[in-house]
Amino acid sequence: MKYLKIPFLLIWRIWFYTLMIVTILVLSPFMLLFSFKEEQYHLFWKVARILSKVLVYGMGFRLKEQNDQITEIDKSYMFCPNHASLMDAFVLIALSKNPIVFVGKHELIKIPVFGFFYKKVVIVVDRSCSESRKRVYELAKKRLHNGTSMAIFPEGLVPTENIVLAPFKNGAFSLAIEFEIPIVPQVYYDCKRLFSWDFFKGSPGIFRIHQHAFIETKGLTLQDMEKLKQQVFNIIEDDLLSDKKYMNDTNRPNNEREFKSPL
């Protein structure tokens, strides 16, 4: 039965990239129009949300949210979800009415067309370059206005699928402290199981998202960063460990292959 599914999974994956390319081409005039001025980023974000919703729902997924606290319009946040799938970023974009800028790898700039728009929603960082990391602070300060938020996948990579949650990097927490913005811990239970980086795994289904209560950073200093990082890690890890579907998928046999994320 497993091998009978392979042709259908391949067709389904090809459909994803076809849907992405066609949707980007259709929306590109609007994305281009709203990409020149930062004052129009909120309009660019609305188009990006349309793209994300087309991909999420067009692949046969549905979103089921559990929100312990709701974000406010015109207020900035630091979104920190766990990262296990290419769909993670699209899920976050589809859910958030607040415009968000991501922090991501510089390699994707080289991709034709996609790279141009990638730069509009991502503060690009070369993690091997200290000057690039410093530049993130300068760009973040410029973008965090009028309710624009930031999103960083704090694991910094997609871990092997037998890992519940990889250790967190410092970036999201140092930035949140620096700019005194609340951290929004988010848990994505199903993206790894339903749309893994493994092409021979997955299916349409429901993406469950748990948005935890926000963690305030006002009054904190960089000396509090490790404690803050561990607090967010524990919230997300405990939630994942208590989810039967997530843990059954994580504990599958022969689940050690590494699939790296571009974000």
TrEMBL record:
The chain crosses the membrane at residues 14-36. Pfam families: Acyltransferase. SUPFAM superfamilies: Glycerol-3-phosphate (1)-acyltransferase. Pathway: Lipid metabolism. GO terms for biological process: phosphatidic acid biosynthetic process. Residues 77-191 form the Phospholipid/glycerol acyltransferase domain. It comes from the Bacteria. Keywords: Acyltransferase, Lipid biosynthesis, Lipid metabolism, Membrane, Transferase, Transmembrane, Transmembrane helix. CDD domains: LPLAT_AGPAT-like. GO terms for molecular function: 1-acylglycerol-3-phosphate O-acyltransferase activity. PANTHER family: 1-ACYL-SN-GLYCEROL-3-PHOSPHATE ACYLTRANSFERASE, 1-ACYL-SN-GLYCEROL-3-PHOSPHATE ACYLTRANSFERASE-RELATED. This is 1-acyl-sn-glycerol-3-phosphate acyltransferase. The lineage of its organism: Bacteria, Pseudomonadati, Bacteroidota, Flavobacteriia, Flavobacteriales.
